């Protein structure tokens, strides 16, 4: 009886997944085999694996890697410091609150900050460096992207560090390990699940960025997300746009599988 009632509760969830996840993916997959004339074709896929799109794919992965790397380098020490502060939950909340603001508003704010007459260039003028072209550069794109994704990297790392048993750290130091050895052999391995979760939350969305590339980087940075936008809204080539989207979905699924917590899944199977 209990199993039957549990299955009944799963029906709305299964309906939601089928309608808003599986159906859209199948629709995009269908359009990836449609040409401009509406007929079936494989030309979209053959064209996708040409040198131009291959370079675009490498560029997307490179920028996603840089954004994830810088976000991790900033977030891990920040999360480590937060766990040692007195009001850590309050400080964590202050870091997370900006993520509730619409991304478009934050991007427009950086247009003013990095603009020719913005505060950054005003500071550079005061220092005698002079006005610099900060917008529409690789630097501005990576900087703004890292700023936007930092809360999503900090949160899982903070949770992993907060759950870390402090007696393990004390035992490591009592056995003569230095601070670096304790971090390398105890703290980081035990919080690797938080790091992987944070990297997933940053790397995967970074692959499909298009609004930030448009407003902050202009035409200097072109990613797969930008290409999808171009094909759907400008060239009206839905087949090519769908092909790139299917490729991105497949890559995201592979990344999630490779970085997923498979040990936990095995443990759950054993418990069952």
From TrEMBL:
Transmembrane segments: 12-33, 61-83, 90-114, 134-158, 201-218, 238-258
GO BP term, example: transmembrane transport
CDD domains in alphabetical order: TM_PBP2
GO cellular component: plasma membrane
Localization of this protein: Cell membrane
Keyword hit for Transmembrane helix: yes
Record-linked SUPFAM superfamilies: MetI-like
Record PROSITE patterns: ABC_TM1 (PS50928)
Predominant location category: membrane
Topology versus the membrane: Multi-pass membrane protein
Segments forming domain ABC transmembrane type-1: 57-259
Keyword Cell membrane appears in the UniProt entry: yes
Database matches in InterPro entries: MetI-like, MetI-like_sf
One Pfam family it belongs to: BPD_transp_1
Keywords from the named record: Cell membrane, Membrane, Transmembrane, Transmembrane helix, Transport
Family: Belongs to the binding-protein-dependent transport system permease family. CysTW subfamily.
Protein's UniProt name: Spermidine/putrescine ABC transporter permease
Organism annotation: Jeotgalibacillus campisalis
